[in-house]
Structure formats: structure tokens, C-alpha cells
Queue: 2 jobs
Job 1
Amino acid sequence: MKKHYHHHGELSVQTMLETNAWCDGAEQALLVAGHRSTLPRRAVLSWIAQQHGPFTAEVLVRQLESERGESSRATIYRTLDWLRSAGWIARVHSEGAEHAYARVLPGHHHHAVCTRCGVILVVGGCLLEALVGPTLAAIDFEIHSHLLELYGVCSPCRGKKEPSYGQRSYLI
């Protein structure tokens, strides 16, 4: 089951609502975890909420510096670390030395990443542990968690006219 959103020129009302829901949910989770909702943290959350594909911490730093005239690298990196540990962003493998991140909703899912345009499809449902669990149990290995990223080329990048998920897929 793929989780995706369509884009035809302007962001749809549905996408805007989901962007706001992500930002509100992440901020509420931050407060519940005992962190303060400071202006710099809200700026980080707001910027990430507007992203519809992978980004690096350095891009985030540069964007906040250009928008706000300043940014605290320590606050940005601590906020990214917390968001990742709480499941609000996922680290995505990238070609460069620096990690890329993508916003997600907490919960178990996998990513299908287009190697040409960088679009990320969130793939829900998981049979991986059911498939490999018996084999690993036979050698007395207990699975605690796993990570699966699939790489390939999305329909628009392959030149098809009508991809099954719309003109462009966005991650929530």
C-alpha cells in the first residue's frame, strides 16, 4: 500500500492540511516530550513541514539563515535528532557524505526513493519480518527492528504520461 499525494501546479488543500497537521503534531509531540516550543524550533518545524522531498541539515541551516538572518546550528541539529528519534523525520540514504532527511508520520513504513528526481513514496505494511523471521529464529536471532529503502526510477522519470500516483508524489 503506497501513501502519496498528488500535485498539479499548486499544492492541493489536502496537502496543505496534511502539512499543517504534520507541523502541529510534531510540535505537540515536542511539548509532550518535555521540550519547549521556542521560535527557532518552530522555524525548523515549519520549514520541514513545507518540504515535499528529501533535504539535508545544511540546506535547512542555509534556508533558515537566509529567511531569518540567523540560525543556531546546535538547535537545528538537536531538533533534527529529536524529530528522527520520535519518528517525525526519517533519515534517507543519499549519494553524498551528508545524510538526507524526509518528513514522515510516526509509525512503521518503508521508503521507495527515485534515484533521478528524489521523490519518496512511503510504503505502508510490512511482511519482511514474517518472511525472514523463521530463518533467523532457526539460528536463534531475535529481530528488534529493521530498515528498508528501495531505490529505482519513478513513472514520470521513466517518461510515462500518467503515473499511478499522480504527477508528483509527496511525502507527508
Note: DSSP finds five helices and seven strands in the chain.
Job 2
Amino acid sequence: MSSNCIKCTVVGDGAVGKTSLLVTYSTGSFPTDYVPTIFDSYAVNVEIKGRAGPFKLSLFDSAGQEEYDRIRRLTYHNTDVFLVCFSVVKPESAQNIELKWVKELKQYMPGTPFILVGTQVDLREDSKTLRKLQKKNQKPISSSVGKNIAKKVGAQKYIECSAFRQTGIKNVFDEAIVTGCCKDDDIEERGHHFLRRIRSFRLPSLKNRFSELAGNVRSGFDSVRTRFW
């Protein structure tokens, strides 16, 4: 299996636009109906200028509701990069980035990089949405506030997008691919990451070899590559 396979898992509060983000990116069409997600997955082949490709991006959608916490965490295994989403017109979802989502990722997937994504930016200018916020003495989350949150929680980057307008979508996933590819800095970690990719995609011909080689990860990526080829 090519090392150009990236697993990207999307997390965040319910109804912040996670599914719309994934569906719009993978199909090119904005979904008109909202159906709360428990679990779903998508696969997209993409090319990025200046990067050896194509890349196979496996996308995993997850439920943000508390009652699905245990199911959601099952999708975390072998994730290369997380997209942590909040809606720029739902201040409580931005508060939960630090209070819940980053805290959860650091507990269950420590060291895995994540990108902070501000969704539904088109609604910053929506009069109906603004009136609802004003009644609560709230206002949309600004881009500068989003960047500050990203810096505070240790996100690799902060990106804003609108699935409805289809703006910023490609940038989100291009950055996810780059972040997923470049997360390992030393040989030992790259060797371990390579084996994780193989296990994630369950290649039958390598099943026994993985078991044999798992204990030898510390010998470095070159030794792992030699055993496979």
C-alpha cells in the first residue's frame, strides 16, 4: 500500500457543518438535508501541486453528541490528522474546542496533529442568524479570535470555510494531507507510522509480516522498508 494514504477524522459539536464539509468536498455538491451522523466514511483521490501523488484521503465523519462518545472514539484509531470543527456562528461550539475536543484528542490520540476549522462562515452575514445571536448577547466568532484559539490549543493551522458557498473547502483538505504526511520528524516515528498505515488498511498479504515486524519498529524506517521489499 502506498504511503500516500492519509486517514483524516473530523470531530466537533453536533450541527456545526462537519458532514456538509465532507459531503461537499467528496461529491462537489452541498447536501440540502440535515441528518445527524453517528458514523460515516468517504474516500477521495486528490492531487496537490508540488507534492508527489496522487493521495488517497480516507475521511471519517463522527457524531458530536455526548451519547455517541464511545462510538466516536472507535474512529480515532490510526488517524493521521484530525479536523477539529466549530461553527463561527455558534460561540458555544468554539468554547468546546478547548473544553472538550482538544482535551479528548490529547487523551486518546496524544501527539496526533490537528487543524482547527471554522465552518459556516457564510452565516456571519446572514441577518436571521445575526438576530438570533443578538438576542443572546452574542456575535459571530471573528477570524482573529479563531486564530487565537488555534494558537492556544496547539492546532497546526486555522482555516475557515463555507460548505454552502464551497469556499475554503479544498484548502482545508489540502492542508490535512500535508499535515498528515509531515507529522513524523524522525526515522523511528516514520517506521512506526508506516506500519500503522498497513494495519489500518488491513492488507491480507502483510498480516503475518506486520505481527513479526511490530516489535522491530525501533530499528528504524530503513530496516522496515528492507523487510517489506
Note: Residues 36 and 63 are 7 Å apart (CA to CA).
